[in-house]
Amino acid sequence: MGRSNREQADKNRQRIVDETAATMRGLGVAAVSISEIMARVGMTPGGFYNHFASKDALIAEACSSGFARSAENWRAKTISHKGAVTGTLKRLVSYYFASKPIEKTCPMVALGQDAAPPRASEGLSQAYREGVEQLFTTFADIAHVDPSCSLSPEDLVVVFAAMVGANMLAHSTGDRTWATEVERVLVTPHSHQASNV
């Protein structure tokens, strides 16, 4: 395969992954249909197996891709924010709770049930576990570059879990109060814990 053909094949593969990741985050893994995904990216279903060994392989890769994209977005929205490092964790918390299109739902929230063993494939479960670790590492890295943040490693775990849990409750109940209240506690310095974020 020539270089230009290989580049086009790589672009096509990435389009399939991106479309699948958006579908999974917006509608869940059960909504992934190879024929529909391929139609949305302008390809025939028969071409799918030129790129992936199976639907499960695509779903695992789309999960990994969604987490990687989220980690990139977290860094882009916080650390590189006009070169400022003070307040990066507060910016991340505010960005995390900001309204987003359904296909950009946090992958930890969107895919948690679908990736839970034993019903998920091992590939999806592993991609999800690695993705959660990747986002926590990104979260901790952002906290560590922020001189105004003095949270201990244990407190970072609690704050991370509170963010994700509140976001999950807000999505599953349709009540943004969960997210709004946790964001307020973490961002507004009215308590000892919040003042360290």
TrEMBL record:
Which GO terms of the molecular function aspect are on file? DNA binding
Q: Where is the HTH tetR-type domain?
A: 10-70
Query: What SUPFAM superfamilies does the database record attribute to this sequence?
Result: Homeodomain-like (SSF46689), Tetracyclin repressor-like, C-terminal domain (SSF48498)
The record's annotation in InterPro entries points to:
Homeodomain-like_sf, HTH_TetR, Tet_transcr_reg_TetR-rel_C_sf
- In terms of superkingdom, the source organism counts as Bacteria
Keyword Transcription regulation in the entry? The reply is yes
Alphabetically sorted, this entry's keywords are: DNA-binding, Transcription, Transcription regulation
Q: Which residues bind DNA?
A: 33-52
Record Pfam families? TetR_N (PF00440)
Protein name, please?
HTH tetR-type domain-containing protein
Protein species of origin: Paraburkholderia phytofirmans OLGA172
